[in-house]
Queue: 2 jobs
Job 1
Amino acid sequence: MKRLRQIALAILVAIFVISLLADFIAPASYATQFRDSLNLGSSWKFPLGTDDLGRDRFSRLLYGTRVSLSLGPAAALLSTLIAAVIGGTAGYIGGSAEQLAMSATDLFLSLPWFFLLLTARAMLPLNAGAWSSVIITFALLGLLGWPATARVACAGAKSLRQSDFILQARASGCHGLRLVMVHVVPNLAPVLLAQFWTLIPIYIIAEANLGILGLGVSEPLPSWGNLLRELGDYTVIMANPWSLAPAVLLLLVMSCFQIALSRMENSV
Amino acid sequence: MSRRLLFYLVLTWALLGNVFAQSGAELRFSLHAEPKTFNPLLASDEASETVRYLTGGVLIRVNRKTQAFEPALATSWKVLDGGRRISFELRQGVSFSDGTPFSAEDVAFTMRALMDPGLHSPVGDAFRPAGGSVSTAVSGTHSITVSFPSPVAGLERLFDQLAIESSKSPQKEKAVLGPFYLAEYQAGSYVLLRRNPYYWKRDDQGRPLPYLDSIRLDTQQSRETEMLRFRRGDIHLINNLDPEMFERLAAFSSASARDAGPSLESEMMWFNQVPTSPLPAYKKAWFGSQNFRRAISEAINRGDIVRVVYRGHGSPAVGPFSPANRIWFNQSLKPHPFDPQAALRRLNQDGFRKDGDTLKDREGHPVEFSLITNAGNKTRERIAAMVQQDLLQLGIRLNVVTLDFASLIERISQSFDYEACLLGLVNVDLDPDGEMNVWLSSADQHIWNPNQKSPATPWEAEIDRLMQGQAKAIDPKVRKADFDRVQEIVWEQAPCLYLVTKDALTAISPSVQNADPGVIWPQAFWNAERLRLATAGAGSEK
C-alpha cells in the first residue's frame, strides 16, 4: 500500500512538473489558431491533434494542467486557512463564540454556493485578463468553500480543548498564544491537512463544472474545465479519441489524489 | 413444430405492427418547451406559435418561400385611405373545425377580442403601434373593413399572425380554421393535432388538404435527444439546427440534412455608446468613433468565422437585414471587407499608434476592452475567440467574458456597465416597420445607446427621419428607398458589427414528401398541409 501511495505521489509530481515546463515543452502557444488545421487527429506536428478552432490540443492540455493543478491547491489552501481561523478559534474558545461561528457556518452551508459563485462571478470587473479571471475564479472557490472544513476544524479544536493533555498544560501554567501554538495547532494540523487534500480535487472538479457551463476560465486560456467542454460532442471523440486526454488526465490525477488521501486519512 | 408456428406468429405480429405504425400518416416532431397557451391571440413563445401556425386560419398568409402575400380566408383585400383602412372579401363556404360556418362576424369578433385591453394580447400590440383603437365594420356576411387610427405601413403582414376565432362555436377558440385542430394535450409530454375535416384548401387536383391525418408534437428540451430520436426514426423533422449538429447529421444521412441558404438570423457585436455609462472617457471616445468601429469591423475575418464556426453553413453578414429578406435587403451592400491594413490606417487617422505589439491611443492608453456574451453558447464563444485572435493582430487585447443571461441583460439594458457585447439577432418580422423599436434613437431596443431624448448624432437623427418617413409612406418604392438608405447609414457608421448570417438548417426525413424547407420560420413545416409520409418509410435512415 505504501508503494502504491509512492507511485501515486510520483505521478502527481511528474504531471505537475511537466505542466510547469509547458513554456519549454509545448510545441505552440495555447492561443494560436491554425485555422487551416481544424479538428485534426494526432500527428508529429500536433501530438494530440487540434481542436475546432485549430489550436494544438497538446499545448492546451499542458497549460490547462498547469492552471488547474496550480490554482486548485492554492484555492484549497485559502479555504483551509479561513476554516482553521474561524472553526479552530470557535471550537477552542467555545461558548457563544462557537455558537455564533457555527451559525454563520451553517448559514454559508445552506446557501446555494453554485449560484452564489455565478452571481459573484457576474459582479466582478469585466476587464480582467484571462489570467486574472482564472485567479478570480479559484479565489472565489477558495473564499466560498471554507464552511464544511470549518465545522471539522471546530469539532477538532473542541475535542482538543476538552482533552486531558491541554488541561494538564493549563494546570502547568501554559496559557494564551503559547498554548495554542505549542499544543493546539500541531494537534489540529493533521485534520486540516486531510481537509486540504480533500478540497483540491473538489475545486478542480468545481472549476471543470463551471467551465462546462462556460463560466470558468476565460478564453483563450485553457483549463481542464474548458478542455472538458469539447467532450460534449461525441463526434469529436469518435473522430479523434485523443480528445479524451483531458478526461483521462483528470481521472488519473483524481485517482492519485484519492490513493494519497486514503493513506493520509489512515495515518490521521 | 409448435415452436416454429409460434415463431411465425410472433414475426407476423411484429411485421403487422410495424406496418400499422407507419400507415397512420402521423407526422412527428419536437417542441423545445411546453406551449404556454393554446389561445392564438396570446401566443408569443415558439411552442404556442407552432400550434397556432398549424391550427389557425388567417385572412392573409405570407408565403414562406416567395415572401409574397397570398389570399387565405380573404379572397381579396384593398388597402384604403393611405393605410388607415383595409377591406376584405372573405372566402365563402368555409367552416370551423367543429362545422360552425365562418363569416365576417367572426373576423369582427376576433378583432374585438384582440383589442380588448384586458387580454394583453402580444399579437394585438402589433395592431396598435401608435395607440388608439382599431374598429371594424361588417358590410355583408363575407365583407368587412378594419380601420386603424393612423396609417400603418405594410398593413397586410399583420394579418398573417391573426388566427380567426369563432363568434358562435360552443368550442370557442378550440374551433379553428387551420389545417389541423387540437385533439389531445398531455402536459409535459405531447400535443396531438388532428386533420381538420372542414379545412377549406384543396390541392391542384381538387383533393382536400391536409394530406396528413395528424401531427404529434413531443415536448423535448434536449437537442441531443431530439437528434437521436430523429436518427432512430421516432421523429420526422427538426427545425433550425446548429451547424455542428447539421454536419453530424449530414455525415449520417446526407438526404436528411437540408441547407436552405441564408436565414434571418445573424450574430452581431456592438460597442457601448451610452454617455452615462460608467466607462472611462477615453473608452467612450474610442467607441463613439466611426473610424474605430469600422476598423474593428475590418479587422474581423468573417470568412474564417463562417468556415470555422459555421462549417460553411453561413455567410458574412452585411447589415440588419440579410439577403434572406428578398424585398427589404439592400442588394447594393456588401459585407465590410477583411483588411487589417485598412483597419490600421483608419485607427491611425484617429491617433492610434502601434507600440511594439500593443496598439495605443493618442494619450498612450493601450487598446484593451472586454466583450461580453452569454455563457453556454458554444457558437458565440468560438466567434469571440476568433475575434480575439483577429484583433490581436492589430495589437488590441480583447477580454472575452461569458455571463449568465440575466446578468448580461442587466448590464446591457440597465446598468450599462459593459464595453462591447456579442449576441444574436433574429428578424421575425420581414417588414422594416417591425424594426422601429430598434432604429429610432428614442427606442429601448436602440441597443448601443437606448432611450435617447434627442438623437445623439446627426446620422442617428437621419435614421429617425427615414424610419418615420417609411412608416408613414404607403408607396412601397418610397419605403424601400428610405430603408435602403437606413441600411447604408448603418453600414457606414457601423453602430453594430454584423458578423455572420447563419444558414437555415433543417433535418427532414426522406419519408416526408413535398418538404420544401424555407428560410423563414417555420422553416421545415411551413407547408404542413401539403406534407405527406411515404407509406414504406420510417422516420429516417437506419
Job 2
Amino acid sequence: MDEMTGAGVDVEGDRHWLRLSCPGCRGWLGVPGEVPPGAAGQLVARRIDAFVQRHVACGRGR
Amino acid sequence: MLRQFRLTVAGALDDERADVLFDRAGDLCVEVVPADGLAWVAFDRVAPTLVDAVVSGVRDLDAAGVGIAAAVADDPLVTLEVIAARAGRPVDVVRGWTGGGFPAPVRDHPRRPVYHWPDVSAWLDRHRAVPAAGDPAVTLEAVTLALRLRALAPRLERMPPIRSLLYP
C-alpha cells in the first residue's frame, strides 16, 4: 500500500472491497477486500500496479 | 487454466453494482476512468476455455445489472508472474529472459516491474518461447457481436430468422 499511496493514490475500504482513487483524475480501481496469499494475491497486485502506472502522471500534480 | 480479459461497461458502474459484483465473484477488479467516460471489469478467471470464462463473466455483470459494451483483451500492463502464466513457464525462467533483447519494463520496480504485453508477446513470438495457440481476439469479437445482437433483440420485429443465420 505504501507504494500506491506514494504514487498519489488514495485507498478507501468501507465495503467488502477496496477502492483506490486517483486524486488527479478521480479514476478509481475496485479490488477484492480479502484475497488469499499466493497466486490470487499476485493477480490483484498486478491490477494495482497497472492502475498506479496509468495514474502516476495524475498523482504528481497533487 | 487462467483466463484474463475485460468487459467494458455500457452506462453507469456505481458502488451498489460493484457491491453485487464483488459479492458474486472474487476474481475480478473494476476500473473507472471518468475523464474518458470509460469503465471496465477485468477478470482473472480459471476456466477450461476462454469462451467459458467470458460467458460466465457476462453472467456476473448481468446479475449485477451492469450493461456490457464489449469483450476486449486484457490489460496490456503485465508483471513477470502474468508473463510466466501466459508462457506456461516458471517465473524464474521468465526472469532469466529479461535483460538483453527482452522488452524493457514500462515501470522498473525492484520487485514488481511492469511490462507492456504487446511488446512481450512479440518477443515471445520471435523467440518461439510459447506454443502457438488460438487467437483470443476471435473469441472476444464473437462474444461482443452476440452482446450487440442481444441489445438489439428487443427492437427487432422477429428474432428467430436472424438467429437462424447463425446456422447456414
